[in-house]
Amino acid sequence: MSWRSVLLTVFLAAAWRIEAAEVLWRFETPLGNVDSSPALADMNGDGRQDIIITTASGSVVVVDSAGREIWGRSLQIPISIPPTVANLVEDEQPEILVLNQAGTVFCLAGQNGDTIWKYDLPSEIEWGTTAIVACDLDGDGTNEVVTGDSAGHVVCLSPKGERVWQYDGGHGQTYPPAVGSLTESTPPSILLSGSQLPLVCLDTSGKEQWRLDIAAQGAAPVIADINDDGAREILTAIGNSVAAAGSNGELLWRFEMPKEIDSSICVGDANQDGILEIYAIDLSGLLAAIAPDGTRLWTGNVHERARRSPALADIDGDGRIEIVAAGYSGELHVFSAEGEQKEAIAMPNPTNASPTIADLLGDGTPCVVYACTSGGIMVSKWPSAKAGAQVIWPEYRFNSARVGTFNAGTEQSSVRIAAVDFGKMYAGENAIRLDIENPARRSLRVEITTSKSGEAPRTMTFEVSEASATVLDRYSLPTEKPVDLNITCRVYDGEAVVAQRSHNAHIMPLQKEIADLAALLDDVVTTAQRLPDAYAITGSAREAMERREYYATRIASVGTLPDVEQRAFRDAIHDDIRDFSRLLKFAATAADQRERGPWPLRLSAANPWAPFGAFDEILEERLKDPEVTIEAFSGEVEDAALNVFNFGTAPLQVRVELDPLVLEGAQDAAPVASREVIAIHEVVNVPTQSLDLSADALPRINPGYALTLPAWDARQLWFAVETKGLATGRWTSTVRIRTLEVEPREFAAPLTVEVWEPALPETQALRHCNWGYVYSTPRMREFEEETLQDRVAHGNNVFVTTLVPKATYDEAGAIVGEIDYTEHDAYVRRYAPHGIILFQNTGGVTGPGAPETGAFRKAHVAWLRAWVAHLKEMGIGYDRYAMYPVDEPGLQEGLVEQYLFYAKLAREADPNIQIYTDPVARIRKEELVEMLPYVDIWCPNRGGFLLDINQDKLEIIKNSGGILWTYECSDNAKHQSPLGYYRGQSWLAWHHGLTGIGFWSYCTSQADPWYKPEGTMDYLLVYQGDGVVPSKRWEAVRDGIEDYDMLAALRNATRKAKDENRSPEAVAKAETLLKDTAFQVARFCGLDEDGTTPGKDGLSGVRTVEDRRHGLIQTVRREIAQLLVQLAP
Q1: pLDDT digits (tens, 9 = 90+) for 422-443
Q2: In the chain, which stretches have pLDDT less than 50?
Q3: What is the pLDDT of residue 378?
Q4: Max intra-chain CA distance, the chain
């Protein structure tokens, strides 16, 4: 067997039992024992740490996370020094530094072990006495190399292996150096210790700064701020004692041990009290935990000498840090942070290495690597170990760069690339996707470098600070020629690379596409055989197979085609791959359904607010169990959705039936007929101004509850539940979809309605306006009563009208004849009982002369006074109406002046008349100030004032003392987010302390909302039918108003409990929810990065966003319900 041969044994539990731990694998080297600590790095780009070891026979071996050799290299001369891993040259993998007994430093390529350079130290080294440190000393972004020999020579090498400086200090044998800044404002220092001197400090140029001038043996120094004073101390040994020195070299304390200390010191806050402890083991096997002031915390015994430091990590998943030590006893000793020995596990051999904590599973689960003095390495894991566990001191000299400096900033970082997709590597454009986990939310820099033969490398940089983030990049590949592709993805924490993935490939144009298409078509045919009617699918696949043969014959000559023909050829292949990838997913889902349950329908619960995607939802893996679940405060209307997929090759006529609702746990409660409280709608796609479709309209299902399900298509059912007729508690029913066949097939979904005890307040707390000029909208005019009922049911309590009294005046400004109140009175009698009316017409009085004439002013004032008196006679007080002189002042020059003109006349006519205004972003601050005396109700535009712009203008409005509302009139309404734009506006109003919201427009348009708008944009909230047909967005408006009412109820309950000194814990939680948590929902309304209309990820991206939003809203509402119960007297 050659030196490269290895024996990899996966031990069964019967063969190896390590008490609480389980052996994952063992790797044995046939030539030479492992007598140094392993190093850790991702050497093969799979996102998991690999293990680098050196052997006493002079071998360097890289082993992957599963225990398989990646490569091995013999350097002939024995190696007793641990390998060091660092980036020295600009490539996709780090380099490996090793030092043999002859004193030769080798820099090896991480990819294959080839020698990049080597350097001979002035002298040889003693067995296991020193280490190589890699660190950026001069701040140029590249790592220098520092090490020493047995004669006291210390050298600094450049990344290319050239000597930068040499220090000869008379400290004896050089122990492992430590490198790090001793204060925040100073460059790194090099700390040395040796067999004749405990401590020497060098600057980055190799000049001595100070020394601890005591004639005694030292130990490998460790740099750490042990007393949290902002300056780092140095830990070493003076003979048989652990010693601490200050950053200027003053001796702080000594802690006596029975014997000498080697390189066995480490630090960390294992007991998690916010204070670092020092851990050291001497050559008698005494393990000491030492306080920052040098006093004893506790001691333990590892029975035999131990030359290397313990590791500090939560290895067993109990949330507490263990101290893991090993040495010549042949046992792995596990201590608690309080000094209790939890386990002493017998190992195959003693060790001369530190226990090493590795992330071999790629999810942060700690595995313990144990290097046997004879017998290779063994990897163990505790069954209870948890992903993302806390690791404080993972390996010898803290990290594989062997810096010997404890860095609390990276102590719990655990940054990793959780997943990477380098793209399909097809001709044309490809996407790269990195999923990064950053649990400590550190500020990271992500660099993606793409190199193609014949082109300069391209590097894109991204900033990441979220706990989990996705980074996307793109690259293109040619159609006409082969190319060598290299992609390297690095994640930096400061200047340190904390995660890395890479990929290399030689790409032959379109060959991968042809191979993928062939395999794909075979899979389609195989999958189709599982379906009862496979012929349609297999026929399409066989036609594509013929095309694939044609494509394959043309590849060789594609480079000779004109560019346009090359692209057309490439796109034809890509289209087939796309279409049949979709078909394969559909067919596989259909086949699974046929084999596991009723055929051919599949029912799936759905987020009602996410755009319905039909079969696209199969591609996005959104299918769920068919459970329709609704949660509501008593008195609310809440909604749910159920998707129905027809995988058959023929359309089906079905009928939708609902079982009676039954209250769980209440045997005496009578069932409730579902049709009395649940309205069933079918979700219908409608054209939009974006020239696509939106699943937005909600017509009621027909009176017979019958529905047509086309072949290979899907429909969404919408359930609107009115909870006023339901007692509090959990109600259950079943949705049954039965085929209208001679032998009907039934498909069922359980339906649950949870009615919470807290009830929707009787009085609505939020004003809601939506500019519904039903009387002037042709398609709605005949449904005025129906629209009024619908608007009131959706919380509309502010009504805007242009129907004002009509009067004429003469040249003297006197009103002539009777004022005509006909249309006005009819409107007021209909709408006034349901809220406040905004009168939006200043042209009710006409006569000779322009408005600026004295006659007009006189007549207008008289007209207003008569109007106010008339309203009073009708029983309409000042608080039930307001004048609306000008729409959107600030939109155009002159509108503010026009507003002030009419507002001043209103004040003259009667100071008690309320005046409404809805300014937009362009209005100037001085104009707002001028308007202040003439505004009672402010309704600033959301986009112009509430989205982190014009905050100075908003403050003027907020400080006015008037009533504060907001409104919005964005177009592309059918694609505006129901949860963000519509429901979220109520939460945004809550965040700003506003008491009203509004939307343009309920129905006001000459365009037909069922179709693409002609000559205008999408603004409307409802559709016409046999009465009013709501939209998903209109339902979301009502939900937002109900949310606001419950926030107001929680605020009132919180204030009352606080005044009565009750439930302080619930009060504190409620105050946090009402402010901080509510703001997180308010951000959906234009403040978060997701926006309110589809972005670059299209409707698929919107579905993901709306899922996240819906989940948060549901969580917050549940908490409101719980707190209201806790705060009740």
Answers
A1: 999 999 999 999 999 888 788 9
A2: 1-19, 409-413
A3: 92
A4: 120
What pLDDT score was predicted for residue 8? Answer: 33
Long-range contacts of 738-744 (CB under 8 A, 24+ apart): 738/654, 738/655, 738/657, 739/652, 739/653, 739/654, 740/652, 740/653, 740/654, 740/655, 740/706
Angle at 366 between CA 360 and CA 369, to 5 degrees: 70
The CA-atom distances, in angstroms, between 65 and each of 26, 376, 420, 421 are 11, 15, 17, 20
Torsional sign, CA 1122, 1127, 1128, 1129? positive
Alpha helices in 749-894 (DSSP H): 784-793, 822-831, 854-873
The residue length of the chain stands at 1129
Contact 598, 721 (CB under 8 A): no
Closest Cα to residue 130, out of 176, 167, 83?
Answer: 176
Tell which residue, 1031, 111, 802, has the closest CA to residue 503: 111
The pLDDT, as a whole number, for residue 80 is 94
CB atoms under 10 Å from CB of 193, counted, come to: 28
Report cis status (omega within 30 of 0) of the bond before 851: no
- Rg from Cα positions in the chain: 38
Structure tokens at 1026: 């046999």
E strands within 939-1031?
963-964, 996-998, 1023-1025, 1027-1029
* 939, 923 contact by CB (below 8 A): no
Alpha helices in 292-406 (DSSP H): none
CA neighbours closer than 13 Å in the CB half-sphere of residue 411: 21
Sequence-distant (≥ 6) Cβ neighbours of residue 688 within 8 angstroms? 694, 972, 974, 975, 1012, 1018
How is residue 858 written in tokens? 């006189």
Helix (H, G, I), strand (E, B) or coil at 636: coil
Q: What is the pLDDT of residues 1051-1095, one digit of tens each?
A: 999 999 999 999 999 999 999 999 999 999 999 999 999 999 999
pLDDT for res 500: 78
Let me know: does 1087 contact 947? Beta carbons within 8 Å: yes
Q: Which two tokens stand for residue 131?
A: 């280490």
Tokens matching residue 301 = 């015994």
Distances 10 to 68, 372, 379 between C-alpha atoms, Å:
11, 16, 10
Task: Report the distance separating Cα 721 and Cα 564, nearest Å.
Answer: 56
422: helix, strand or coil: coil
